Amino acid sequence: MSVALRALLFLVCLHLVLGQEFQCPLGKSPMTRRGRLIRCSAVRACPRNSICYQGDTMISLCCRTGSPSEGCVYNNKAYSYGTSFVDVRDSCNTCTCQPGGTICQADCPQLKCKDPIRLEGECCPVCPELPKGCTHDGVTYVIGESFKPDACTDCTCEDGFDPIGLYGGATCMVMSCPAVVCERPEKEPSQCCPVCPELVVQPDGCPAGWDSHRGVCYQYVENETKVTSDVANVFCSQKHERATLAAIPDVTSYEFIADTYLTEFNFPWVDSEHSEYKGWAKHNPRRDEECSVMYQRKLFSQPCDFIRSAFVCAFTI
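The chain above was modelled as a monomer; its predicted structure follows.
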């Protein structure tokens, strides 16, 4: 017998006679008489009409005469197709003999957790026991405890929530901030919402950045974008809660605005409707032009949907 043929032979040959199992060395087949083993002889070929079983890793050349169907050899035992049995090598596995060989695997349920664990003595992995409480940013909170992940969020740890959620199983409410009406709102690191800074009042009674004249605070604004008269009025109220477009109470106030803010090229919006003094230019005001600008020490009427980049704000002290 060639070396290649001997290498192809299964390591252990099985021959079932009268319900008994006989084992022979590599390349040998049991010879029996009246159910007793006489000797092991070399396997040269399978007897006619015999069926070969499939072994663990290769097709066995050990055959059973008169076998009704094909099967498998697993751990030196023969099984017919469709037979299931407990794996003697790993009691957690159930093996099934089927065409192509024996398939062994553990029958475990599908888990819905992130990192399952396998306990000692258990066949199937399980989900780890969830902690009683909430964990956020490495800190664990007990049921009912409140905490703030940030300045704008209030959370309460509650039972029955998934602890791997956004805030560790807690229910959270995010604070909404009111609108602020000022030019440069400020926000402290410990605060959620921005607030308007406290105004610093100058000796003349006007906040910093405002010019005082006869009990009225004025401020000239050169905006980055051009705006209508109505929008300019809103911008004034954002600079101070009582500020509006500047109305002109008298000629001295008119001259103060002209001397302080006017140049050869700017056209700031002012409020002529509520002005006591109206230094209109010739042929002004014109019909259907209800808004006004100052230019070269005169008032000019303008359509209210015109846009200008400059305007003068004012409020009474």
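The longest helix spans residues 229-239.
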